[in-house]
Design goal:
Blueprint lengths: L18 E6 L13 H9 L5 H17 L3 E3 L16 E4 L2 E4 L15 H4 L7 E2 L12 E4 L2 E6 L6 H9 L4 E6 L18 E4 L3 E4 L9 H7 L4 E3 L2 H5 L6 E4 L2 E5 L3 H9 L3 E5 L2 H4 L9 E6 L2
Parallel strand pairs: 1-2, 4-5, 7-8, 10-11, 13-14
Antiparallel strand pairs: 1-15, 3-4, 6-7, 9-10, 12-13
Length: about 300
Amino acid sequence: MRMKSQKNDLHITDEVSELTNTVLGIAVSPGQPRGINAKAAEAIQKGFYPSEAELILAMKGFENVLSEQGVTVLKPNNIDDLNQIFVRDLGFVVDDIFIVASMKETVRSPELDGLSQVLEFFHPDKIIRPPEGVYIEGGDIVLAKDTIFAGIGRRTNEAAVGFLRTIFSNKRIIPLETQYASSDPRVSILHLDCAFQPVGSQYAILYEKGFVSPPKVIFDLFGTENIITVSSEEMYQMVPNIFSISPSKVVSCASFVRLNKLLKERGIDVISIDYENVSILGGLLRCSTLPLSRKN
């Protein structure tokens, strides 16, 4: 679907405001299974990597939900034999600026070509590419109004922090070093949003052990009483990686029974879908989206 206007549609300041436009990944012609993260590698080794048909079905269910909620859904250009599900990693929007990812895994770099038509909607001055030596992916960037959390680990490096401070001098940039050295998917954190995500008007989902140092700043910002902590097994299931359509509405997996109950108790409407097959690849609902615009 094409957006009605080409200019000035970029507007993202947080993770929860009412969503209007987003890119959603695609699962058509994903190519051979790739074990480029701990969880996908485990699925290949143990023989439960999902089929193309299973992935397409899951993503169609997600697309239907977004469309029913009035969200404009854009898709990357299909590139044969390439996994294009996790578009979040390809870039991110802060305010009205689109930052194109600089990807450490060169095997994923061709995915950026799939965004070419999407980027044509926006003025070139609003699109920024990191300089040489900076590695940064959208899964490591979490927004909270005037604060940008930057996960430093397997895919995003320290140089990204300085880059963000140069571009967004009006923001508070907080680096958080994630646990990524292990090959165990129940320990290793691929991106920040696998361990932390704001939800609702004041809450956050957090896997405390996903960080090299205790993430005190998250508790300070959100308040201990507003943190929903998850276990190692829940992190492995990608529980922190749900997706907010608005402060009062999220898309989650039907199997996330404990989280969904806690969210409902906090006044958040939970739309449950079957998306577990996507999680086997090492990402989930947030990873599959690249929001372009949310209302103030």
